[in-house]
Amino acid sequence: MKLLFAGVLILSSILTGCKKDNDPDPDPSNTEGLVFVGQAYTNQGSMLVKLYASDSLYSAYSNLFIELRDSASSEVISNAKITLLPQMEMMGHAAPFENPSSTAAINGLFPCAVVFQMPADMGWTLDVTAKDLATNNEGTARIAFAVKSPTLTRTSVITALNDGSKIVISYVQPQEPKVGMNDFEITLHRKETMMSFPPAENYTVEIEPEMPSMGHGSPNNVNPIHTGNGHYKGQVNFTMTGEWNINLRIMDGSEAVDTTSYFVVTF
Amino acid sequence: MHRLAYKIFFILISSQAIAQQQDSILFFMEGNITERIIGLNEVLVKPSCDCIGECSCKPTVKENYSLNRFSATDALLEKNSRISLIKRGNFAFEPVLNGMASDRLNLTIDGMKIFGACTDKMDPITSYVEPNNMKSVAVQHGAAGSMYGSGIGGSVNMETNGATINPAKKFSGEAGMGFQSASLGANALFMLNYSSKRWALMTNGVYRKFQNYRAGGGKEINYTQFEKWNGSVSGKYMPTDNDVLRFDLIMDEGYNIGYAALPMDVLYAKARIFGLTYQHLPCHGVVEKYEVKLYGNSVSHSMDDTKRPNVAIHMDMPGTTKTFGGYFDTQIKKNKHRITLRTDGYHSNARAEMTMYPVNEAEMFMLTWPDVDKLDVGIFVQDVIELSGKNRLSINARLEYLNTQVMDEFGVQQASVFNQDVSKPNHRLLKVISVSYMRTVSKSVSAWVTAGYTERAPSLTEQYGFYIFNAYDGYDYIGNVNIKNEKAAQADAGVQWKHEKAELRFTGFYYRLFDYILGAKDNTMDAMTINANGVKFSKNIPETFMTGGNLELSYSPVKMVKLSSVSSYTHGEIVGGNPLPLIAPFKNISSVKWLHQRGFVMLECESAAAQHRINPEFGERTTADYSIINVRAGYFFPIGEKKITLNAGIENLLDKRYRTHLTWGGIPQQGINGYLNISFSF
Question: What is the assigned CATH class of domain A35-147?
């Protein structure tokens, strides 16, 4: 009899537990491990834009995540068309960026990216223009934030040796370098005007890792090749921990674009 | 008494079985070293103290004086004419048997597997045991040495003294000091044995401190200093006449060891060796002896470049090995067969790191040995068949399973740099078989022949080494996890003629090696080490061969005078290619010795031919011929049962500047060197 009573108790607690799980989750977007950057309401369309990043913002290629909510119901909008415009208004220039590739949110978030070319305590803004595809509401929100200077240079602008154009070279990964084979990725963007940075897609890139204090490199590296949207992906090998330079050689056909840039990796 | 005699007889016979195909350098109970090399089919009479009471523990070989009581182990090994030494400084020479260095040999202490912790082979395990703690060194050639493991060149087992049970003499011991001039070296040693009726305890120790030595002509050779001590404790207990329990503990520590041929020295080298042995000798039945041994040891080693000028980047390279294992032996005698069965196994872990400290930059770190676990089990069978009084057949076989696994994920990642997957365990099966036939042709002539097939697994460096710099050829070496086992088909033969006044012995060997493991240049790779010539990967060379022989002559025209001459020659070649690297040239040691009841005087001439057969890819250089003259003398003063022994000598009397071919870095050998040793034994 006692046992039966206990059983009923357990069963009821399970049932009530299940019931709780069925309650609508007020916050289904998964922002765990992300850094909250800032938020703003859209000028029209009644939406709240929350901006997250995978790390504190540095002058580097930065992965960003946008959460969109209906400002009245607070419900997450997971089907929207989003376009970005990062600007450093004081200097009067924009930056290379990547809009969310899909109108469908992933875990309630729209992943996108911006290359912040310089650090600033203030002055960087991101205009997020969103169109809720369910309601056709549309509006733009402006979020302001600071961008720090990284310990190692992660983005730079070079002047192409062949045609004098300006190219933004940015380091994407490895973010957590290890001894052995690492995925290596950079982005190239052409700086057409102060406000226009289209991806540079027709270059070939060669890499050569080197330990500056030892003068040696590493074998079996895979030169990055263009995978779309200005991204070049390859593989880099580190034979030991320490300070490595990844030397770049960028070619436009048979013409050299840049032969002196490199990224430093220390681990 | 009858039973005892029976037992002694069996002990002699069983040692005879072990002695087959063994060259042995015998040492006396008290650590005295004979100058005698026991022949292959002579009986190795172990000074066995497996018996007590009426059984005498004195060996039957006539007591003699050592040539130099304070020699290091490696110098003693070299007295075997088929052993030569690779020298990188003035300490811990690497033994080479039949033209093959330690990777191809089984080096054991009391049958225990011990692995050096230095990736650059600065600490062959011969450096961790001292002659005053050594009873004998058993050298077996090729496949015939498979009792101690699978190897190509053979095996060298150094047997330690242990405690002596001798109730007739409660305390026995020795203390001595020695000095030598070329390196202002000082040696000190002691030994103390306490024996009760059924148990005994022994302790001994050696301390050595040497400065830089002077080469012929007087030039001081920097970075040849060293300091070390070695201590051991051993106990033996016999609960019954048929049971022996023994423990051994050996500790060895070396400090500030110079390696003139290498870009850095050794900060410390430390070994701790433990062994526990139980023997049961049933008096009846077919089983003569059971033996169980359990052992464990650890070796740690670290290098030091802080005393060198102009070091581009300072680095340290600590390494450790930890091994435990055991074996179980059964000896059976049935009719004409004497069968030895051994089941053995060990587990070993080796890890070596390298951290470089550049100025104003992040430290650089890698694993030169990526934390590798080795698990090895083997079975060995030997059947000695007494065909007739004059003919004897011996069959040896061994089967061994080896499993290696990289334990550190960092090591797995490292290997991926070279597209090598070391994440999974590596299995190997090794097979060894040999057959020997011995025949006593006449009263004075005997002969023997051995044919064998053997395999060895790659060494840790050959399989998993990561940028291990070899100062000889200036290349960084990288292992290959999938390298094939090395194999060899071998033939060994010898003939001996013995006369009242003269003795002649000739042995020869021909080893055909398949999948010979050697570093091969890869020009696409950058060297890691600054100023290195490039990178070499372990590679199997389809076929090589190694051949050679030695001739030993001795003649005593009168009882007090003995002339002797030992010559040896080895020839190694890659089939259709270059000579194999680091092969010693023709060498001869001749001596004339005048013997007195209490002493001797000896004039010795050591000569080697030039070596022009070199392997340029290995950075080898030719070596000129040389001859040096040594004078040695010994004398003892008896004080009742006790005695004082004096040894003195002058090596390289003419102060000749020379170097042996196996010396690295073109460093000349010691010049004129006087030594004086005095010891008191009781």
Answer: mainly beta
